[in-house]
Batch of 2 targets.
Target 1
Amino acid sequence: MAPLYCSYGYDVIALIGWQRQTRQARFGEIHHLLRESVQICEAQVRYLYHHQYLPLLACHERQRRDELQAVAERCGLILSLDGLAPEGGEPQLWAVRELQTGLTLRSGGLGLQDQATFAAFLQPIAEQGWPVTAILSDKQRGLEPAVAEVFPGACHAFCHTHYFQNAAATVADADETMKVSLRKSVRDAVGALIRCEGQPEQPGVLTVTGLLPSPVAAATVPREQSAQCDAPVAQAAEREAVVQDLLRRVRYLLTLKARPPFRLAGLEMFERLTEVMTCLATLIQHDADARLVQLRQGLHSALQTVRQDYSDLRQAADWLHRIADLLDPDQQPGRTGSAVRSDLFAYLDDLDQQTQDTPALRPFYTKIQDVSESYAKGLFYTYDLPALPRTNNDRESEFRDLNRRLLATTGQKGLVRRLIQRAGAWELIPRLPSLQATRLAISQVPLTDLRQEQQRVHTHRQRFRLHVRAAKQSQAQLQRLVQRWTALPAPGAP
């Protein structure tokens, strides 16, 4: 069977979609797979995916309204909202999912991210009359008043991950500054030493393989043969290996990257370099190699330059970890939202007293306090509503998975951005669990629904018809615009 006026059956359409979304195959690979049994060109494979498979998938998702209705009547809907980071002036992809069913209620591009736009995006959901119990978002600007306008009776919960990222902003900035300063101090003190990579094959050349590989080092000689080597030579080689390992360790630690709010690279660099110093002290006590002595002295002087900064940042980072423990439902199960709120602000009051006489710590506390007060009205619903998650990470994970999948099927980051703008709303709709289920589901979509969805796809993609870079194609498009414009009657013409 096939959709009306389509030359290819549902089995071909389902196979194309399954290979593309599940196997992450490129259109050329899918064409190669099909051409042994089906007369089809690569352009037709691409067309069937974008204009048949994706619209059919969206229509199938829409047929599950009864399931959504039942959940709404039983306990109310719990919605999750999130969007991709905007691409300089281009529409931003947003999605609204119902968390208990996983259904996509709305998915599409928003040209603006203000209250009026968000309200217009959410209003069709409110018009269905479904009870909405709670909404989870990242507290984006403009979204909070829009939710209050469209769903005045719903709890608007805020993502805990974004709360911590904002609360830790001042700490993270200070940590990055300390990291840069410490790295510079280490390089000034022992840069020439740690840049030296042992005894390479040639300057700048490390281990090489291929038809002309690097010579095998003595350390890789089998044990039974190494016993025959001269003992002083073997000991010198082992001593050199230990020194080089320590130098590589220091070199690596200078490249650490932060992942706020809890992975702070400056703190980690200071602590790991301190561990290296402790190790060096033990080694030097046994054998005071000149390079080890130089390395330890250099690290000691570098660490001293930021020791006070480290002490302050370590204390502020410990505050964040303590707050994370307070908000973790597994630490003290069974607490209500009001109890968690009381615990958090009692701890913040303690910090207020602790930092009264410590000006260096006061900015860190002030930021945490301000963000906590800003997020307080949406931070604690999750403890009273078991179905409401603490974070919006699942939505962000879907966006990351979409990016990874499209990158795997195209190999071009620029093309991924264009595909998300043109078809991201349809690509976000979850695929079915198997090829057979996909074939069965899309074959049951009414023709009228498919035609309407194809028109939506066409209307959306038409917005990007002038987004081309090829000079010849661009000139042809502009010429057609000129022809269309000059075909119009001039103003005032009879």
Target 2
Amino acid sequence: MKALPTTPDLASRLAQHRALSEAPASEHAWLAAHGVLRSYDTGELVNPKGHPVTTLSIVLAGHIVIRVDRGAGAHKIFEWRAGDLGGLLPFSRGAKPPGDTVAEEPAEILEIAQEHLPELIRECPKVTAVTVHAMIDRARQFNTSDHRDEKLVSLGRLAAGLAHELNNPASAAVRSAKLLAESVAAAEAAAQRLGAAHLSNAQLAAVDAVRDACRKPSLPLSAMERADREDAIGTWVDAHDANDRCAGPLAETGVTLAALDTLAASVSGDALDAVLCWIASGCAVRSLSSEIEMAASRIYDIVGAVKGFTYMDHAPTPEPVDLRRGIADTVTMLGAKTRAKSVEIAVRIPADLPCAHAVGAELNQVWMNLIDNAIDAVAANGHVEVSAAMEQDRVVVRITDDGPGIPPAILGQIFDPFFTTKGVGMGTGLGLDIVRRLVQRHEGEIEVASRPGRTVFTVRLPAEK
């Protein structure tokens, strides 16, 4: 960076500046008299990340860019070219840039120091009006970019969790389907052997009695009780010289040793082995069919949760929103992360809670960010609670966690854009800023209270009238 001498043609260059061309010549002259003309080479730093911006920048030539790395490589979030206004604008809060501001090609910038801005407002009303419009456009562009980036990050987290959620039941269904084919083949072979045994009506009645007992659901057993039952039936099968593969399927049913003894008293030898193989294969077929049904139902429920979470069949317009369903869908979407960390999530929402008047998909983005942050905050085996109640004319939702709490020194910064306590690639610093904006867009309020062992985010939303 180097300062260039002020030349007589500077005011005329300002008169040709796209943003300032309609300002009167007197205001161009004032800018030329109070500004410092600087040049920047390609790749040169204009303003470092996190450092306050102290000058109004009138870009006369070149290309200036801010890039931010949010874990997937640096990408452009804002840029200025010749004819643009940047830097510290009058009436702006003077936020620190979230990334380095760099010249991507040789640039010339007329910089007006912060100390001159009050005088600029008095002496240059047209320029001031232009800077206000530039500030509004910049805020809109930043908000759009931030919201898009946070949505992409949320989508990535959602896709990863969804893949994990779907993988388990899908794998179970595939595994059970393969075993089912084997069990059906075994059942057919056992049926042929059973037919060749030419059992009497009395023997067939004894077989039916055991088969009926196998169809009854077994009582819930502890791991030790289940092992003892498998050992007992395995011992019985071995004692009667039957195929030991029958023991496992029989142990999963409600059949008793007494029922098996009654069968053995009526059928023996190869016929008993054929009967046990036929009954066991039938038990296995029913068990595997049930597992496939449960896996498919789980996939169906997850897909339903995704549809509910995204409101994919709804236009993005305010409508009555059932918070119980939205929060339940959100918890389902975070199920893989919850189980991986052994976090317990308790949802306590009364069935008669009034609906909120909102855009459902946007509210679900609020719950996703807040509950996801709560899961991140707690230790393994931690606890998160989501509760809701009607308070006056507002629906109030509270997300509480038993994590270490937010230090008082940063509690006032957590809703600031780009502020994060997570490592690089772990968070964008946009989640709570997006949450705050979405809540405010719905005429709601959000607040936080935190101490070691208890952090509570409270969201208040208008109830549907």
